[in-house]
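Thread: Newbie trying to understand structure tokens

Hi all, I'm a second-year student working on a class project, and my supervisor (Dr. K.) asked me to get a predicted structure for one chain before our next meeting. I've only ever worked with sequences, so writing a 3D structure as a token string is new to me. If someone could post the tokens and maybe explain what I'm looking at, I'd be very grateful. Here's the chain:
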Amino acid sequence: MNPLAPSEAKKLFAGVKKATAKLKRTKVVVCPPAVFLPFFAEAKGGLSLGAQDVFTEKVGAYTGALSAEMLGYVGAKYALIGHSEVRARGDNNEVVNKKVKAALRAGLKVILCVGELVRDESGEYLDFLRLELESALTGLPRRLFSQIIVAYEPVWAIGKSAAESATPADFLEKKLFLRKLLVGLAGKPEAAAVPILYGGSVEEKNALDFLQAGEADGLLVGHTSLRADKFSELLTIVDHGRN
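---
Reply by user tm_fold:
Sure, no problem. This is what the structure looks like when written as tokens:
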């Protein structure tokens, strides 16, 4: 829910757009608060727009809700679904599944967030991760997996209060685990085409490590994206240094 004012949002977007114009190998999707989407729909340049969330239904008596179709009308091409903060406010796996299907029905690509809350030594968190991914994609035809992007965000490694940081090696293990689950859900060709991003306190200092050593297909950037200078630096590093 940042920034607060339209003037701030426009300034931030302009800075990111300027940096994006110089990129050669990196695709950027910006997911601003929904009220700001119309400001950028006609002047996004090389950027794509996404919504931070969608509702499960298309239309009806759901005061305060925004359907995927409505968000598509004002410029969204992607939908962020299952983000840890949204899950913390009450979205369970069943709701996430409904939102994934609603977004795809509206023609939006889905950035599906999954990630464990805590890391236990016995490895039970892997069952938690498996359930999140499989539940979210239950009932999805194989042909629609081409519209899915998975973002792994370990909640225990996010924010200033994080107990520790995830490492590129740790992410690579989870990427392989998630890829194996995707093969079981959709088959090898379809699963191989699903990008798997890392999103856990990504900064300009560690972005390249996650892309190279961690073999991430991309990054889900949080707080760093709120500063045009830092985000632009991150994008430049990523674009020049990735394999």
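A couple of things are worth pointing out once you decode it. The chain is about 40% helix and 10% strand. Residues 155 and 236 are 27 Å apart (CA to CA). Feel free to ask follow-ups in this thread.
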